[in-house]
Amino acid sequence: MSTAVAGRGARDPGTMRAVVKHGPGPSGIAVQDRERPVAGPGEAVVDVRATGICGTDVHIAHDEYAHRTPVVLGHEVLGVVSAVGSGEDADWIGSVVAVETYFSACERCEQCRAGRRNLCGLRRSIGSFRDGGFAEQLRVPVLNLHRLPETPGELDGVLSEPLACVAQCLLDPPVVQPGDRVLVTGPGAMGQLAAQVARACGGIVTLAGLPADAERLAVAAELGLGTTTEAPPTEAFDVVVECSGAAPAAAGALRAARRGGRYVQVGIFGRDVTLPFDLVLYKELVVTSGFASTPASWRAAMRLIAAGAVVLTPLVTRRVGIEDFREALDAAERGEGLKTVIVPGG
């Protein structure tokens, strides 16, 4: 099999370029040639249009999130179905789709039977335990596919997966009631989406960041969201939604929640952190979260997109080719921009 680097010789048509985590740490990531996937029964091959870089990818790079090696990274996938493995699925061919992340779950445990495959102990997801979307093509179960509604931007669908995760945290069960004062900490892509979903629920939303987040906060302000770089006032918010994955922001959010209010953890810390957790007791806070997504939260995400309740195009602030993945990952780790997407076509 040929392993010629693109641009340096003929490419084997049976291979494709992909970003592979093959060893420990960020140095254990490389762009390599991989065999193109073939759909089996009940599966589809998706030609990848774009895959978003997520904070989880940064955590995987630093071995702070469970994964196997070697594995093609990437789980926020937008693409077009080019092949299926079963004749009854032929109507999917040519469809523009977003992709659920779970390649498999046991389907027998209590969580799976309750529709919560995200909590299955044997769940295996694309981008961590099965090959993901930082590649030219991806193989997934047809069960994972969601046809995208019409959107203003060609890459809006790449935000479907993070939107489904936000929906899992805020809509199942509903967290924000009309008129609630809502603080969202962390103006990255997840924070921007959480702020928009909270507003769609009727919340009066403030998105908080650091002075270094000025460009990100400017995007939110253009979308009509309230923003601040000041420390949030104590006990001023009915609901606080922590999206930064940073301990100081989480501590500030706990202090900002009113007595009897709600605290929602969306961001991933990636390590043990120290928090003023006695505030949960003293203020009788309701603490909730949501791990990844469920079929119900995906349906909610598709409804939000179809209704125009979330604005996605401005959140895609950078696109690069597969060969420039390292540069893009470093930029994501530094917090530059909002959503950087890998576009296999360059």
TrEMBL record:
Entry-linked InterPro entries: ADH-like_C, ADH-like_N, ER, GroES-like_sf, NAD(P)-bd_dom_sf, Zn_alcohol_dh
The entry's keywords: Metal-binding, Oxidoreductase, Zinc
Ranges annotated as spanning the membrane: none
Location of the Enoyl reductase (ER) domain: 25-342
Record flagged with keyword Oxidoreductase: yes
Cofactor: Zn(2+)
Pfam families: ADH_N (PF08240), ADH_zinc_N (PF00107)
SMART domains hit by this protein: PKS_ER
PANTHER family given in the database record: L-THREONINE 3-DEHYDROGENASE (PTHR43401)
Name of the featured protein: Alcohol dehydrogenase catalytic domain-containing protein
Organism lineage: Bacteria, Bacillati, Actinomycetota, Actinomycetes, Micrococcales
